[in-house]
Specification:
With 329 residues, this protein is of the alpha/beta class. It contains seven helices and 19 strands. The mean pLDDT is 92.
Length: 329
């Protein structure tokens, strides 16, 4: 079960911003102290998007004991709607609205064994978990997966801290992760915590389910920017409201429907809570499910779509502009 505090917005001041890997910056922010950030926490920040503002979530890599200094790391995403570009442009002295550390990916201390799995920027969600497990003398392995070493933040620091408990899988070095082998190496007493791209997490979830391992021992956090297909424009329709709008590549389906005047329920905006689900009545194209709320079978049925992260892609060989018709319950 996850827990979630109410956001306490305050003005934060950037203390430092430095590059820690290709397209990744480490940003330290001062805000009113709320105690040391627990493993798995994140902060929300407000970022300007044109004439409006939106909220982005970033995992807390570390904090001081009082919680007055919080460090995050931000990947600059090419298809970003502007949030990551804004964060990368921050410099010491700049101010921004930021919450206290919020928890929805808690670490349970006390399991016999742990595997922490990070894909790319997902290392920011599990790095503090690994530090805490080392501190308490737990039996753990930190598995870090990336395309190339230059894109993998904190590799040197993690190696110095965790030694042979850190296992690297680097595609460019010919050592990709064998997901099936990883799942086979896990026993029923091991808890696995993971954060990373949807393809990696989906492969682990499928393997975990097929292996018969306890579902409660697989815990994860995701980010909605990764999908099975590159984002492209598609048409969204809600016939019962006589609404039709184009979803741009730089916005979500939820944002496009809101822009069109549709009032929808939502919360996490990361494909985790399921509050923004809408029923699919018709689709021209392929549903690009980017959530972790729907089960594999539910996604395969194509009956529902998480509007906060999921999209529609052109069906291979069809040449038809992708479109989806949705129904509000």
């Amino acid at each position: 079960m996850t827990t979630q505090s109410l956001p306490d917005w305050a003005t934060g001041r950037v203390l430092a911003s430095t590059a820690v890997a290709r397209d990744v910056r480490r940003i330290t922010i001062a805000r009113p102290p709320r105690g040391r950030a627990a493993p798995g926490t994140h902060v929300d920040v407000r970022v300007p998007l044109g004439d409006a503002t939106d909220v982005r979530s970033y995992s807390v890599v570390e904090s001081d004991d009082e919680g007055g200094q919080i460090t995050i790391s931000v990947l600059r995403v090419p298809q970003s709607r502007g949030g990551s570009a804004f964060m990368h442009d921050l410099a010491a002295g700049d101010e921004l609205a930021v919450t206290q550390p919020l928890q929805n990916f808690p670490l349970r201390v006390g399991a016999p064994r742990y595997v922490l799995l990070a894909g790319g920027i997902g290392i920011t969600a599990v790095a503090e978990m690994a530090r805490v497990l080392r501190h308490v003398g737990a039996d753990y392995t930190l598995v870090y997966v990336g395309r190339s070493r230059e894109r993998m933040a904190y590799v040197v620091e993690l190696a110095e801290l965790h030694g042979d408990r850190l296992v690297l899988h680097v595609d460019a070095e010919g050592t990709p992760l064998d997901v099936a082998g990883l799942v086979r190496s896990v026993d029923p007493q091991t808890e696995l915590y993971m954060c990373g791209p949807i393809r990696l997490m989906d492969a682990v979830r499928r393997g975990w389910q097929d292996s018969g391992l306890p579902p409660a021992n697989l815990r994860y956090e995701t980010f909605g920017s990764s999908g099975w297909f590159e984002p492209e424009e598609f048409v969204a329709r809600i016939p019962q409201r006589q609404v039709e709008t184009t979803v741009r590549t730089d916005e979500t389906l939820l944002e496009a429907l809101t822009r069109a005047g549709v009032d929808l329920m939502y919360d996490c905006r990361k494909g985790e809570c399921g509050l923004c689900l809408l029923d699919v009545s018709c689709v021209d194209g392929t549903l690009d499910h980017r959530d972790v709320f729907l089960s594999t079978d539910q996604q395969a049925s194509g009956r529902s779509l998480a509007t906060c992260v999921s999209r529609v892609a052109t069906r291979a060989g069809s040449g038809v502009r992708p479109a989806v018709s949705l129904t509000i319950p």
